[in-house]
Amino acid sequence: MEVRFICAGMLSTVQDLGRRGLLCEGVPLGGAVDAFALRVANLLVGNPEGAPALEITLRGPEIEFSKAGWVAACGARFADVPAWRPFQVAAGERLKFGERSEGCRCYLAVSGGFDVPAVLGGSGTNLAAAIGGFQGRALADGDVLATGPALRVPTGHWGIDERMLPRYSRDPLVRVIAGAQAADFGDTLYSGSFTVTPRSDRMGMRLAGPRLERRAGYDLISAAVAPGTIQVPPDGNPILLMADAQTLGGYPRVAHVASVDMPLVAQLAPGDRVRFAASGVAEAHALIHAQNHQLALLRHGIAGKMAPA
Fold first, then answer.
1. CA-to-CA distance for 271 and 273, rounded, in angstroms?
2. How many Cβ atoms sit within 10 Å of the Cβ of residue 128?
3. How many domains does the chain fold into?
4. Pair 219, 262 in one domain
5. Is the domain of 13 the same as that of 147?
6. Listed residue (172, 185, 173, 182) closest to 255, CA to CA
7. Residues 197, 255: one domain?
8. Is residue 288 assigned to a domain?
9. Alpha-carbon distance 229 to 245, whole Å?
10. Cα–Cα dist 61/16, whole Å
């Protein structure tokens, strides 16, 4: 199948689950900002969970399918596109994403996954390095993406129990673990809500709210950072690092978002707000294990609703 972009939308890129194991070489993790939504979208159409899919940001595309196939859209919700369930498209059909009603990023998986080459062990687009995905860039009007062969496809009409989804919100409470320099800032991070500013992208989410003032003035040596790390630059407005974050940073690290709550952060759009709550490593581990257990149950349940392609 070929997928043609009549209109590419605001920022549509091919993403997977990232380039793991290369942070020590200076290669960002990358991949889907909301990995949970990408994994579920792929499961719904019979793909491996990390198969390359389309990450759609804020304004969706209009796309045309050359052949019949199955697709699923998870994450942000758009008018005229069913969410969190597989649906079939016909040969020559056009799928147009309407007005966004919830979230920031939607993941469109197509049976067979998008056929793009792997670079450094991953197929996701890294815009800063211009590698991966489709020619290392965002999709543009007129681009054509090929899909791989589908191994399994859904049978019948069904969806998932949405009670298993993260509690997406425009004002979520996000759990964080104290960072290396947390004691330098007191409890200001937990004292109010922060607004997502337009100066946010796949590398970092810039927040405006209570100003985080550092009590100590000693210099810091650059240290490892990762998606979820919250850094505090000199202006006191925190930066929450996202999927394409650098691997080293010299700003103080006040906290790190628990992995289970990263989907909540991924779906925040400019103007949305976020609050933070202190958590601990043990709780964070228990929460992500519980989410992975839910995904395992979903994986098992979906297996019985698939047939060979």
1. 7
2. 13
3. 2
4. yes
5. yes
6. 182
7. yes
8. no
9. 9
10. 19
Average pLDDT along the chain: 96
Query: Which SS3 state, helix, strand or coil, does residue 203 take?
Result: coil
In a domain, 296, yes or no: no
Q: Output the pTM of the full model.
A: 0.96
Q: What is the pLDDT of residues 245-265, one digit of tens each?
A: 999 999 999 999 999 999 999
Whole-Å CA distances, 4 to 43, 63, 94, 98, 306: 23, 5, 9, 17, 26
Taking the C-alpha atoms of residue 107 and residue 83, their distance in angstroms, rounded to an integer, is 10
CATH for 219: 2.40.100.10
Cα–Cα dist 251/222, whole Å = 8
Q: Does a structural domain hold residue 49?
A: yes
In a domain, 66, yes or no: yes
205 and 132 within one domain: no
pLDDT digits (tens, 9 = 90+) for 279-304: 999 999 999 999 999 999 999 999 99
Rounded Cα–Cα distance for residues 53 and 147 (Å): 10
Enter the tokens of residue 272: 């949305």
Helix and strand numbers (H, E) in the chain are 3, 20
Instruction: List the one residue out of 74, 60, 65 whose CA is nearest residue 93.
Output: 65
Q: Which residues contact 199 (CB under 8 A, 6 or more apart)?
A: 206
Query: How many CB atoms sit inside 10 A of residue 68's CB?
Result: 13
Q: Are residues 80 and 182 in the same domain?
A: no
The side-by-side arrangement of strands in the sheet containing 86-89 is 11-15, 53-57, 100-110, 69-78, 86-89
Range of the domain at 12: 2-160+304-308
Q: Are residues 16 and 79 in the same domain?
A: yes
